[in-house]
Amino acid sequence: MGLFRLLFWIAVIFTAIWIWRRFISKPKSTRPREDSAAPMVRCAHCGVHIPKTQALNQEQQWYCSQAHLEQGPHTGDS
Length: 78
Prior knowledge:
The chain crosses the membrane at residues 6-24. This is MYND finger. Keywords: Membrane, Transmembrane, Transmembrane helix. By secondary structure, the chain is α+β, with helices and mostly antiparallel strands. It has a domain at 38-78. Helices cover 42% and strands 15% of the residues. Strand 1 (40-42) and strand 2 (49-51) form a beta hairpin. The mean pLDDT is 84.
């Protein structure tokens, strides 16, 4: 009977710890969902996809950097 009581109290303590961690502890901070689904655009010069908020726009074309914006769209010549 003593072993049963010991196992019972161990189970109660582990359950209390689990409840404490699950419901009372501070929830982990996560990034907002908007960041993970940011709209992407393609650089007209190199073709790299970047978030629209970081891209540079000129004449309805998007660029990944100031250098590519100055060089203009890729013409296909090597």
